Amino acid sequence: MSFERADGRAVDQLRPISFEAGIAPHATGSVLAAFGNTRVICGATIEDNVPGWMRAQNVSGGWLTAEYAMLPYSTHDRKRRDSSKGKVDGRSVEIQRLIGRALRAVVDLDKLGPRTLWIDCDVLQADGGTRTASITGAYVATQLAVQRLIDDGKLDENPLKDSIGAISVGILEGTALLDLCYVEDRDAEVDANIVMTGSGQFVEVQGSGEEATFSPDQLNELLGLASKGLKEIGSLQAESLREQLATD
Predict the structure, then answer these.
(1) Sheet of 29-35: strands edge to edge?
(2) Cross-strand pairs, 4
């Protein structure tokens, strides 16, 4: 008997994915990234300055950093804002560091010049995979921001060396699944988040058993599923960018 997923997808099928550009007009580049019912606003803002530590240490080039937050109404039960708690949630810190690492892996900071690229990811609606949707959408927003600087004559060449995307995979009831929605992620025996460049290089592999273990063969199966999904995501990113840049 074949495994039946909560939303009827095949085990190796992505949720419907889209990127709506220009969602935040004051950002240099922005998209609303949707992975099924998960929706994240990804904004890329480029400022003509660098952090103080770079100036103090005479570090050349630019910098890239990220911030991530889940809006109070993004989950079934209202999530308190970090500002009301007086501290940043540990999970948010972990995810924004992951987003920053992922984008820095494909951005030539020397070519960016003495600028700071801010990546802001705000979750409007959470149904699993918010960190992977953030990374995937942030890449599209960054490409749009960079193209804007090139068009304005502020950059001579694109500092992005490759594309970047991320996807979740997991094992539920012994079955390997691609792109977990919330109920699958909640109940999975094993879950992992895979970050990979368009050329097929891993940037990060985050995987753990939830009161369970997994074998090398199962890990390889999960990595294979992720690679398949990320090739599809790369095509969707490229198509979205072609359409947006053709209309600008």
Answers:
(1) 17-21, 29-35, 38-47, 116-125, 63-70
(2) none
Q: How far apart are CA 169 and CA 144, in angstroms?
A: 28
| CA neighbor of 6 nearest in space, from 31, 37, 32 | 37
Chain-centre distance of CA 50, in angstroms? 23
User: How far apart are the C-alpha atoms of 209 and 164, rounded to whole Å?
Assistant: 25
> Which positions ≥6 away from 91 have C-beta within 8 Å?
none
> 21 is written with which tokens?
């550009």
- 172-214, pLDDT tens digit by residue? 999 999 999 999 999 999 999 999 999 999 999 999 998 899 9
Contact 196, 203 (CB under 8 A): yes
Please state the CATH superfamily assignment of the domain spanning residues 17-247 in this structure: GHMP Kinase, N-terminal domain (3.30.230.70)
CA distance 97 to 94: 5
Q: How many CA atoms lie within 13 A of 74 on its CB side?
A: 23
Q: What is the pTM of this model?
A: 0.93
Q: Which amino acid is at 245?
A: L
User: Could you tell me the two tokens for 116?
Assistant: 């700071």
For the stretch 26-42, pLDDT in tens is 999 999 999 999 999 99
Identify the helix (H) or strand (E) that includes residue 177.
strand 175-178
Q: Where are the chain's structural domains?
A: 17-247
Structural element, H or E, at residue 29: strand 29-35
